[in-house]
Amino acid sequence: MINDILSLNILGNSVFNYLKFIVLVIIGMIVAKIFEKIILSRLKKIAEKTTTSIDDFFIEVIHKCVLPVGYFVVIYVSLKVLYLQDGLKNVIDKLAIAVVTIYGVKFLLKAIDYSLGIYWKIRKQDIALKKSLTGIVRILRVVIWGLAIVFFLDNLGFNISAVIAGLGIGGVAVALAAQAVLGDLFSYFAILFDRPFEIGDFIIIGDFLGTVEHIGIKTTRIRSLGGEQVVFSNTDLTNSRVRNYKRMEKRRVVFKLGVTYQTPHVKLVEIPKIIESTIKSIEDTVFDRAHFSSYGAFSLDFEVVYYVLSSDYNKYMDIQQKINLGIHKEFETKNIEFAYPTQTLFVNKG
Question: Which fold has domain 190-244?
């Protein structure tokens, strides 16, 4: 009686085969659940105690990408014990390709997100960089999903070669028409990864100078000292010589001062020492040199060189002001006169 029931044929398969299919599915699901609830949970607790993030990434990938595919594989393999018509078997095979493609893309995108996240942390979690990386991720998502769709359609039997050839010809035409935009896009990637400047940096490009406010896919915007916004295409910036004052570790300062020709020799000898002591008395400065450099048209000229240990322009101006006031005070005390444009007229009474 039982043998008759087990051998009963329904839609081309015996009851025994259906039971075998059900048993295989149940066993596979139980094994997958045990792996998820016991093994994966323990691995997750271990990963939470480690300082690295790579193990957390792999556990998340297993949970969100590998396990769903594993459940599908259990059903797919179990179906092998059944006789399926060619049409139904073809549908299941295409469904398997779709599942593998979808979760393969998800895994790839998660890997990209994780890699860019590590890059962002290395770059000291710059908010501006995060916005730029978000834009890159969006572009990559479109590209990767587009390639995945092409791969899937190719496996469905569509003639993708003809489509790609048509897109290639159209792509060349679009590229020629939009080469400036594409050039700016590639320049954007160059700026993003090479980092010649960042948002907040004070830069000079040719005759223009200001603080970087925005780095976009096509343009970069700079707020000038006058208050207006200057917009550059990214290609212009990558093809230009950019002077980045934000990354200047110290500022070299050269200035000159002149004293009158009536200044005695003894005081001329004292002047470099006065300048040196004045500069050394001010914090965040490094004295380099002070010399009696030349005989001017109406003055004896001294050249002074020192360094400000900061890139802040306002701080540099504050220090220069202190130096000027200090030198003026010392010259006033020692009766040393600054020179200014004068002419001496000699009258011959003969």
Answer: SH3 type barrels. (2.30.30)
